[in-house]
Write a structure and sequence with these properties.
The structure holds two protein chains of two kinds. By secondary structure, chain A is mostly beta strands. Chain A contains no helices and twelve strands. Chain A is globular, with a radius of gyration of 14 Å. The model of chain B has no long low-confidence stretch (mean pLDDT about 90). Classes of the chains: A mainly beta, B mainly beta. At the A-B interface, strand 5, strand 6 and strand 11 of A face strand 4, strand 5, strand 9 and strand 10 of B.
């Protein structure tokens, strides 16, 4: 079963607009972490934001915020005031549990294009 | 933030030869590192979990004899693609998790392998 689902293969947004990238997840473990990474064309994976399953508030990091809806099992990334440099692939990922290796499982990714 | 260095960034090798890719955590000790493979326009697929001082744990369907992993120290893991074939051409990327329970994984820059 797919543990992380990103249903938007591509998104096109006008510069300076806000954009929401969708992510839903599936787990039965009460302890988990959700991550968003940005991958520009160079290939590097840039960590953007983290949300723990027990966190009471939505995570925010500068222009990035995570809309965490636990009951719906969704962890959407919101980018405010988009910039041309935000054009990249965006991956949602989940780490389950607090024991063991805690590997990351990634969604399919969303390609975001910011238009001038 | 923590830095993970991966080398080489690009490599072209002849079919039948072996290629070694290094992944180093530069400013923290990583008991666990992860190796991913990414096909064009696809997500990251976890290949194996590299454990310092012990054998790697491979994901289902990944040939352990083809992709040799060695984690000889707390700062270095290597992936060797043995007897490479054109179908092994891909983007390989490693990550290391910083110490602590709820921490993000930091990624290397990735290695683009082309087998000719």
């Amino acid at each position: 079963a797919q543990k992380i689902t990103q249903t938007q293969p591509g998104m096109f947004v006008q510069e300076k607009e806000a954009v929401t990238l969708d992510c839903t997840y599936d787990t039965s473990d009460p302890s988990y972490g959700l991550f968003w990474y940005k991958q520009p064309s160079s290939g590097e994976m840039i960590f953007l934001i983290y949300q723990g399953s027990y966190d009471q508030q939505n995570a925010t990091e500068g222009r990035y915020s995570l809309n965490f809806q636990k009951a719906r099992k969704s962890a959407n990334l919101v980018i405010s005031a988009s910039q041309l440099g935000d054009s990249a692939m965006y991956f949602c990922a989940m780490r389950e549990g607090i024991q063991g290796a805690q590997k990351l499982v990634f969604g399919q990714g969303t390609r975001l294009t910011i238009n001038p | 933030g923590a830095v993970v260095s991966q080398h080489p960034s690009r490599v072209i090798c002849k079919s039948g030869t072996s290629v070694k890719i290094e992944c180093r955590s530069l400013d923290f000790q990583a008991t666990t590192m992860f190796w991913y493979r990414q096909f064009p326009k696809k997500s990251l697929m976890l290949m194996a979990t590299s454990n310092e001082g012990s054998k790697a744990t491979y994901e289902q369907g990944v040939e352990k004899d083809k992709f040799l992993i060695n984690h000889a120290s707390l700062t270095l893991s290597t992936l060797t693609v043995t007897s490479a074939h054109p179908e092994d051409s891909s983007f390989y990327i490693c990550s290391a998790r910083a110490p602590g329970l709820y921490t993000e994984a930091f990624f290397g820059q990735g290695t683009r392998l082309t087998v000719v």
